[in-house]
Specification:
The chain is an alpha+beta fold. The protein is built from six helices and seven strands. The longest helix is centred in the C-terminal third of the chain and has 14 residues.
């Protein structure tokens, strides 16, 4: 487990994403893959994510708003970070209503299975964010159509 402290950074004019830069020695010890899956904690809160590569080969970890809110930290704060490579496979489970809709459309089910986890997650998150049952139903149907 690699342990270090880093400042939460939110670049000007790039939206709401916030990240921590990894020190070069920590990055080197974690390994070479450009998009390295990691797990650990940020500000004492569990995180499971993927390291990204920045300018000049630097690496950084995006810290989601939900984690920042739960930890009570904001951009500019210095946080404790613990990270290690995450060997567990990344999977995205379709919610029951989407799974049922995909079962009725074998072509869409096969296409969904071939999608990268990040794309499957985008569909699932979009459906899960619906507040009303009618909206959720429409999104499930639209997702199957788009897939």
């Amino acid at each position: 487990m690699e342990r270090f402290e880093a400042r939460l950074v939110r670049p000007e004019g790039t939206g709401t994403w916030t990240y921590v830069d990894l020190p070069g020695d920590v990055s080197a010890r974690l390994g070479k893959p450009a998009r390295l899956p990691v797990r650990g904690t940020v500000a004492g809160r569990p995180v499971r994510s993927t390291l990204m590569v920045g300018a000049g080969g630097s690496r950084y970890l995006v810290v989601p708003r939900e984690l920042r809110d739960a930890a009570g930290v904001v951009p500019g704060d210095v946080v404790a970070v613990e990270l290690e490579p995450d060997p567990e496979p990344r999977t995205v489970e379709a919610p029951p209503d989407l799974r049922e809709a995909l079962e009725r459309s074998p072509g869409a089910a096969a296409a969904f299975a071939r999608l990268a986890n990040s794309h499957r997650k985008a569909y699932v998150d979009w459906i899960e964010e619906a507040k009303r049952p009618e909206t959720r139903e429409r999104r499930v149907a639209k997702a199957v159509e788009m897939i």
